[in-house]
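idk why but the lab printer keeps eating my pages so im just putting this in chat instead. protein + iron/sulfur cluster:
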Amino acid sequence: MTDLAASLRQHTQGEVLFTDADRARYATDASIYQQIPVGVFVPKTADDIKSAIDIARDAKVPVLARGGGTSQCGQTTGVALVIDDSKYFRNVVEFDASKRTVKVEPGIVLDHLNAFLKPHGLWFPVDVSTSAQATLGGMAGNNSCGSRSIAYGNMVHNVLSADAWLADGSVVTFGTLDSANGRAKQIGELGQSLATEHRAEIERVWPKVLRRVGGYNLDIFCNQNERPYTADGSVNLAHLLVGSEGTLAFTKSLTLALTPLAKSKVLGVVNFPTFHQAMDAARYIVKLGPTAVELVDRTMIELSLTNPAFAPTIRTALVGSPDAILLVEFSGDDKDALKQKLQQLIELISTLGLPDAVVSMTDDAPQKNLWEVRKAGLNIMMSLKGDGKPVSFIEDCAVPLESLAEYTANLTEVFAKHGTRGTWYAHASVGTLHVRPILDMRRGDATKMRAIAEEASALVRKFKGAYSGEHGDGLCRGEWIEWQFGPAITGAFRQIKQAFDPDNLFNPGKMVDPPKMDDTSLFRFPPAYKTIPIKTILDWSVWNVQNDPVTEATTAPGTGGDAAEGFAKAVEMCNNNGHCRKFDAGTMCPSYRVTRDETASTRGRANTLRMAISGQLGSDGIASDEVHEALELCVSCKGCKRDCPTGVDMAKMKIEHLGNYKAKHGFSIRDNLIARIPVTAPFAAKWPRVFNARNRMPWLAKLGERLFGISAKRSLPAWRSDTVWSTLSRPPKGPVLLGRQALVDAHARGEPCVVLFVDTFNGAFERENVDAAIAVLGAAGYRVHIPRWQMQGDRDDRNLCCGRTFLAVGMVAEARRQAEYLLSALVPFAEVGIDIVGLEPSCLFTLKDEMLAMHLGEEAQAVADHAMMIETFLEREAKAGKLAGLRAKLKPAAAPILVHGHCHQKAFAEISPTLAVLGLIPDAKPSLIESSCCGMAGAFGYDARHFDISMQMAELSLLPAIRNAPDAIIVADGTSCRHQIHDGAQRVAKHAMTVLAEHLA
Ligand SMILES: Cc1cc2nc3c(=O)[nH]c(=O)nc-3n(C[C@H](O)[C@H](O)[C@H](O)COP(=O)(O)OP(=O)(O)OC[C@H]3O[C@@H](n4cnc5c(N)ncnc54)[C@H](O)[C@@H]3O)c2cc1C
Ligand code: SF4
Ligand code: SF4
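predcted complex ->
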């Protein structure tokens, strides 16, 4: 296909991605399927798309339009030229607030559109769960439906018109049939005549539910949907494109109907003693006119209760121990009227025999928290370790509400018969409950999937439901189109496809002539799937397990049979849901946020790794250049470790890769310079002027860039002679700082004691932070010990190191050696229960994260259990009422305090202690800057190749927020964050301890 790539390069300005790794990254969506595309094209202009369609058509290569690639049925996979419009087609083309309409390009993401609309009091109400990454083009392609579809309908109910390229490259406007002309009119007339010809059959077989998304929307000519497609009963030809999964045309723009934002919302949480009662009650509840009725079942409740972050919220919603809860939302402008609705709900539930079963929530915050828990429950479910996974293939069948209870009961029996189980959740209001039985597609469960699908379909038919009620047809449900609609209507669908796309250019094999759903050659994990055996450097055994599909219990770590010792199974946790393509709160994924390249997303990296370790990118596996390239821009922020629903921990995977890759290719001088900062520190402290010469002499900096790749645009942290270790008196004197044994003795006497682990960066470059921490701890009444190098025969004025800098370049053996020294110094304190606090997040969290995966035994765990950020320690002590003394010594804040959280603080959910501790300062109202990674990320931003992208990361939100607050005190605990803020905003950022110490009276 080099000709195709060459033509695209010659005739377009777009990005032409044809390497094996590029194609591999676009081979999957959020389904169980995988098809390697012919190539990938990321167009920059509308002309690019037209040219690409023409070039592909002439080359007889199919075209597959793609947005976020979050589809669950395989419709976004294909042996085709994939055209990804999500990077450059993100504009609002026209907006008319008075008419409540907006025209958008197909690649705009729903959340971004709604952020644009919000100031105008409007929104686009098809609120899919993937709102942060689903594009409007993809939503139209799938006829997507939101949680509030009972009030606002599906995508089809909200599209007013579409401009689209047909296979011949012409652009056609699809709107009302009455206004159609040219090709649109011809197609409309064909649709009309097909609908007339098959009217009786349509009326007989068409599911009469709101949530029917299977097949083409032939019923726009004779509506069968619970909700009319248009307000005036007219026929809108754009609705033929909606739900067509890219098989008819390539959408250029969409005109959408908008809805006013409701001013108020209230939530009634109905607690049911049995799941059956919850299902049965839904049909009565919807008569009250709610905007959402969402189910959370017992399993999800329990999962939430076991999660410390969510337990307090879910408890506020529970009355006793319900088997299921329904979240019933009412929205509108008049809060009092909504409260009356809640009262009606309470009365209704009472008449159903359940008095006192409703928890009312009228304030916004508790409602928002509970919706978050509902989403998180699904995420926890998806994080099941082992090869058996909850598989989406019947998860959106829609049945009429009066049959919901019986349908769910019968389907539960089907699961049990096949030795599996499903957790139920989501849209009770419209009879579309999500359920995913746990299946292992590598071990023959394709047969089970088919059997369950067939039995589920029989139930859907019995209850006159829709087999495909939300996620579309794709590869998974394509073959069920004929089952649902019969041969005559399937024939009519074929004629529609023929009229639009006579040469079968667009997404062939979907909607018309689909393959079997259980064709294992189309699976991401076919039975022949194998991984290349490796001896891992880090311990991945916790992922190397199998699970029981009924109890979900997992086997002991290390027993999963992974030839890659658990690493492969950790990589395979990525299910392609695309959540890492988000831009909202959270850290994940800074490199995607600035590049919008699939390669630079966590998903792109996980897919590259998966293909590499399973030998699908050659024999180099984890050590391949393809993996190295995909991980190049990963800043190891650990954002994904926390924000990815299945816990894909790419930062740790990068260490494993680098260890293997560098073992093959060797370490560069730059690697050595970065890694060896901790061992250089004692020497640099002796001759700081020599070591700092590069900062004074621009030519040296330029030479350094040429020779070692360290950006000349950066100043480096300045070495100094008065490091913490060189100036600590030996043995330390004074009431606060104690020697090692003195601290243990003081602890034994019951005096408040703490160990301050001084990292290389604070100790060697910014000792003021260490002095500040000692001052604060002293003011709070603590005895402090700073551990130093304890090895026999060594000098004791040297720093201890967590190994972070060595891990950053893949020198895991050296990192382990450093960690062993550190452990030997810290274990004696952990053993007697003395807390160990740290100042630098990346170093402190190495103790709690990587060191536990470095085969360091129980001692590492003991230290991790006692190690914490200094703010976490102080917050805990404050809560225990032990910081009254410190509080009394603090003078009021004279300026606002803005906090930038280090990525690792955020990854471990430990940023709130910083705010809490700064809040001890009278009149201080510290607030958090909503920021992702600062872009410096250890040594990343010092690398000349990364300078620009590093600054772009900082400019995303951090630097603008700082510039907007010229008088604020800026707090950043990370040394590299402080450096970046200095370089980017020319402002001094301080460690939280320094700010506290400055406020000591
Ligand atoms: C965790 C999770 C939760 C989900 N929740 C929901 C939910 O609440 N409701 C819901 O409806 N769905 C849901 N989905 C499914 C999916 O997210 C939605 O269908 C979403 O709208 C797809 O958007 P996308 O940009 O990812 O589309 P893609 O997957 O990229 O594309 C979808 C289809 O549209 C076609 N297409 C894309 N762009 C164009 C274009 N320009 N022209 C023509 N055709 C095009 C593609 O070829 C494909 O067939 C969920 C998926 C996941 C993984
Ligand atoms: S890395 Fe995580 S968030 Fe991204 S697609 Fe994979 S599972 Fe989803
Ligand atoms: S560690 Fe950070 S940069 Fe790397 S993949 Fe995860 S979120 Fe992205």
